[in-house]
Amino acid sequence: MIKRGRERRYEGEIPNISHGELVDRAFQYLSAYFGCSVVFKERRGAQSEIPDAIGFKGSFSTLIECKASRADFLSDKNKYFRKFAIEGMGYKRYFMAPIGLLEPSEIPNGWGLLEVGEKAIKYRRVTIAKESEPFYHRNMQHEISYLISAMRRLNISMAVFVKSVD
Questions:
Q1: Which residues, other chains included, contact 165 with Cβ-Cβ below 8 Å and sequence gap of 6+?
Q2: Whose CB has fewer CB within 10 Å in the chain, the N or C terminal residue?
Q3: Domains (range + CATH), the chain
Q4: What is the reported pTM?
Q5: Cβ contact 81:49 at 8 Å
């Protein structure tokens, strides 16, 4: 067991979970737990922020950033849209990490923490260690651009017909 010079509330072994596996689990979790009807994982849009997973339910969005290592988590705070929360995407925002890797007390203000444990039957168990607060002021323009970019790449087109009434 690694102590890392701080008190830990979880005393077990930190599961070895890859970033890719966390992203896949975040993708599943957004749909199953948060009830998002539209979910994306690791896709680039026109904006600078590339969410590991983001889901949309009505006009609300939930963003999940996956961290498989402490170094990745610590470097994340230097990103422009992390320093200035209004520039980031996500009405709700979470970090997802293997259980025991991060402590709720070190998660940035407003952000939540999802912890991924050992495999149960089919999936790894996800628990909410810290709930996200709503980010009322967020970059909704980036969210809209992200959705439009996804629709364009999927080659979805919509026609609007206007019928004049005489």
A1: none
A2: C
A3: 19-153 (3.40.1350)
A4: 0.81
A5: yes
